[in-house]
Amino acid sequence: MKKLAVILSMFVCFATCSFAQEEEKQESGVVFENVVYDYGTINKGSDGKCAFTFTNTSDTPLILTNVRASCGCTVPSWPREAINPGESNIIDVKYNTENVGHFTKRISVFTNKQDTPIILTITGKVVDPTPVEGVPENK
Questions:
Q1: What domain count does the chain have?
Q2: Quick check: is 122 in a domain?
Q3: Would residue 118 count as lying in a domain?
Q4: Residue 130: per-residue pLDDT
Q5: How far apart are CA 30 and CA 18, in angstroms?
Q6: What is the pLDDT of residues 63-121, one digit of tens each?
Q7: Domain assignment present for 98
Q8: CATH code at 119?
Q9: What's the whole-model pTM score?
């Protein structure tokens, strides 16, 4: 019986915390359609562009004060003008696909609506389709 009470208490706690986090996201005034972009498997040298669409859900103008990538292989570009309430816009991201291998990079979005950044993530795997001499190709 005690185990059941503990399990129910934990469930209520997790449900309450999840609801509070969702409510906090909505109060931030910024809603992204997606916060993760998965390139999947892409070839070396291919187009490493992607975009994150967001909407200003607040009653006042939204300003992206800074957008920073976790490393130099990822370059974000963002609107410098204020985004009015109800309007949407895009943060473009370009990943350097000359780097072969798995990757996960983060982009921090700073706004006038909150003290902590919103974290966007790009992930994927870059492969080199050029056959290496002396190594048999997989068929």
A1: 1
A2: yes
A3: yes
A4: 83
A5: 18
A6: 999 999 999 999 999 999 999 999 999 999 999 999 999 999 999 999 999 999 999 99
A7: yes
A8: 2.60.40.10
A9: 0.74
Q: How far is CA 81 from CA 5, 67, 90, in A?
A: 53, 13, 12
* CA distance linking residue 78 with residue 52, whole number of Å: 10
- Cα–Cα distance measured from residue 66 to residue 96, given in angstroms and rounded to the nearest whole number: 21
Task: Please state, in angstroms and as integers, the Cα–Cα distance from residue 138 to each residue in 71, 90, 102, 124, 135, following that order.
Answer: 33, 39, 20, 21, 9
* Residue 136 maps to a domain: no
End-to-end, the C-alpha distance of the chain in Å comes to 59
What is the amino acid identity at position 58?
Answer: S
* Secondary element (H or E) of residue 75: strand 74-77
In the chain, the amino acid numbered 114 is: Q
The residue ranges of DSSP E strands in 1-138, in sequence order, are: 30-32, 36-43, 49-56, 64-69, 74-77, 88-95, 101-111, 118-127
pLDDT in tens, 109-134: 999 999 999 999 999 999 998 876 66
What's the domain range around 54?
28-127
Residue written as token pair 């906090």: 24
